[in-house]
Amino acid sequence: MNPTSQDTNFEIKQFPIRLQKGGQITVPELVQHNLNLTEGDILTLLQVEDLVLLTVKQPQVPQLADTIIAIMENEGVGLTDLLVGLEAEREAIWHEQHQDA
Known about the structure:
The chain has three helices and two strands. With 101 residues, it is mostly helical.
C-alpha cells in the first residue's frame, strides 16, 4: 500500500502527560471526550524505537505502524529525522502561541 497525500493529511495534537507512581498516566479530559473513552476502556500502547503511540483501537495498531513505516521509507525519512522535525514543530508552535500573548 502506497500512502497518498490524502492518507497523510491529518492533524497532530500534543498533550503533556506526567508519568505517575506505578507507571500510571492520565489521559487528558479533552482526549477522553473526543474519543468517547470511559473508565475501564482498554488502550494499546505501541512503542516504535523512541516513539510512543497510544490507541483505543487494537486492530489498527499494526496497520498504523505499517503506514508510518511506508511513509518513512517513501520519503526517505528515519526516526531521527522525525524526532528532529517534531522538536522543530514544537518550537514553532511555542513561538506561535507566545507571539499572540
